[in-house]
């Protein structure tokens, strides 16, 4: 064989191996998880699961701009041909929406024992764990600090506040919760007041937090982990749990939620992953991580700066009602944002 | 027969990876529950007014970007390719660096530079910094970032097309006028079709750009497609949202085909042995060098410096490596596979267009250009619409989808490079081989390819760079656990420490530059061997 033909043969083999590696689907001992929780926080947990169980974890993560919406909707689109086994939602509302769409399968994990019924689907389709709170991030050194989300409508803060796009992520859930608790009229009036008071819309909670840290705005409604991460970076911000008065609304608690995908390719591995995610040890890790999330299991060790659930005044909501409301208010929110 | 079958197969593959996904997506927008309806379009455009601002923003940004890039790119191309400016090769390479990574990384660099705790905080007064920071988030910032990102396109095209100017015409011009007039009346008119083509390309690329405008909070219309799909997974609405952009793209490409394409085809480098006439700058040498150096500093050195400085934290690089080594390895493999397939398909597409071997050669050229200029998110949406079915699940769940995305988006690059290269390969060589009775594939393998080898290698190199930096389509179609490095960087931006993100960007840039250096050496070695 001439040198040239040999070279071509070697090249063809190399290309064939590269193509095979590129196109080979995942091994049987694997679990596919779609994750809406921030990759920087969720990936270490998934890697620990992989290390501890030997089951390869194949993950798809959301991006900041489509937080918890893109991956959820990919699951709906793949309903007839599911690719995922587990969905790790960063809020229960989208998990509830998936249950309503018939995407999930019921699974009552033994690890869920101890988690309050409020944070679990009655039929076992999803279970909450490790929560964030919706809190206000404030620029350090503010003379007049807002103590309620109603500060968004306070003329003293006109043009000085920002909120993440309510079409995506936890802001959608929070808006839906307000509609569920206040009723449509009062909630619509609140949105109108936001517009009139010059509240700016950012693309995400992270961007809102960055803008407050940069001094562009004085405060924003974000998730507690957004505040914690900016504080860890040494940026001049502080967090405040809003509406904590005796007659106050309370702050909206957003637990992560995990559910099993109906018809997923690796159901048994999916159940093992769910058991792992709902464990006390995972909640402890997430509490101590930069996510600074509040455990839902009582008695889980937490660091200073991560409050216990019982120490907070919490907004009383039914997540199934909030999920239904979230679907209903989509057109209104789109009009409000301007889509 | 052999030639016809091979080229038809290439065309069919191009249609499958490129045209069919778009058709599937637009099909979903007009066929709802088995019935033909335009309801999605009516619904989306019912409040047409709310769409005018982002459409206006997109057109404004694209027009300004194309205009600035053309002026700057041509000027730099002339200075670096046509004069005796010192260090022109180094400056040309330096100014081309922004082409190696996605524009949103440049946006991140400028954010790091101008943030209140950024690199320039100790150099620029606080008020000026605040003003600049305010400009960054909006049209001025977006324009600056896209001009920096796309200027190399026109600059490189100008450098390339300058070789198409017959030096004898310039010499004749110099007999009666000086260099400025010769450049104005001989050189520039000769290469004008190529420059305009470059401007049109930049216009379409800027029109479809999503990453940088989203980061810099400038509301552009392609974001609507991404929103409709990513937030609502509404294929129909995503397709409808993309239709104005598609219409503008088709209009511009129709203009390009009608007025420029034939003239661009005729722009072929003159005899390689002949040196290009250089303009002596004389006393303008030093000022010109200072001006270009300043521009290179502003456009390339400063943002890269900001990226490196913001990545300098004790744990940023180990953490970045820990988080992204696997996606980096995958990116390199995907890019290599993608570049190889792009080179093969692009070669045959370029051959088909050069020889007009099939009647639909114009359609093939237009299709590849259209796919190149469409937003990557649109191509990704189309691929999902077509392949997300039980029967094709094996493919949908594989990284083959990422490769398809590369093929759809970037075949135009390798096709046009092949086209330009084949212009230098005398047809008589192939005809002589044909007369000896050699089959067509043998003629391609033993006559055409060796003669076109530098161009083929250049096509592979450029395909590799573009596949490595791809974000739009690959972010939507990568299967679970197989994300690429640009997608990984984008997902880690959510609460990822700035130093981590910067370190990841530096790794992406460094890997691309190292790959270029290695492959560039290989190219020189192959060239000198011939």
In short:
The complex is a heterodimer of chains A (339) and B (530). Chain A has 339 residues and is of the alpha/beta class.
Architecture overview:
- The complex is a heterodimer of chains A (339) and B (530).
- Chain A is an alpha/beta fold and 339 residues long.
- Chain A has helices spanning 3-23, 39-53, 70-77, 92-100, 169-182, 184-196, 205-213, 224-232, 267-277, 280-288, 319-328, 330-337, and strands at 30-35, 56-61, 86-89, 104-105, 126-139, 161-164, 200-202, 219-223, 237-240, 253-261.
- Chain B has 530 residues and is mainly α.
- In chain B, 77% of the residues lie in helices and 1% in strands.
- Chain B has a two-stranded antiparallel ribbon.
- The mean pLDDT of chain B is 82.
Distance between the termini of chain A: 65 Å
Largest interface: A-B, 59 and 51 residues
Helix and strand succession of chain A?
A: HEHEHEHEEEHHEHEHEEHHHH
Fraction of residues in H or I helices of chain A: 40-55%
Features:
heterodimer, A: 339 residues, alpha/beta, 10-stranded mixed β-sheet, B: mainly alpha, two-stranded antiparallel ribbon, 2 strands
List the helices and strands and how they pair.
The complex is a heterodimer of chains A (339) and B (530).
Chain A: H1 3-23, E1 30-35, H2 39-53, E2 56-61, H3 70-77, E3 86-89, H4 92-100, E4 104-105, E5 126-139, E6 161-164, H5 169-182, H6 184-196, E7 200-202, H7 205-213, E8 219-223, H8 224-232, E9 237-240, E10 253-261, H9 267-277, H10 280-288, H11 319-328, H12 330-337
Parallel strand pairs in A: 1-2, 1-3, 6-7, 6-8
Antiparallel strand pairs in A: 3-10, 4-10, 5-8, 5-9, 5-10
Helix pairs in contact in A: 4-11, 5-6, 5-11
Chain B: H1 2-30, E1 31-32, E2 35-36, H2 39-45, H3 52-82, H4 88-96, H5 103-114, H6 126-136, H7 139-161, H8 167-176, H9 179-208, H10 211-215, H11 222-230, H12 235-259, H13 261-265, H14 285-310, H15 316-355, H16 361-373, H17 376-387, H18 393-396, H19 400-422, H20 427-435, H21 440-451, H22 453-469, H23 472-477, H24 485-492, H25 498-529
Antiparallel strand pairs in B: 1-2
Helix pairs in contact in B: 1-12, 1-15, 1-16, 1-17, 1-19, 3-4, 3-7, 3-9, 5-7, 5-14, 7-9, 8-9, 9-12, 11-12, 12-16, 12-17, 14-25, 15-16, 15-19, 15-22, 15-24, 15-25, 16-19, 17-19, 19-22, 20-21, 22-25, 24-25
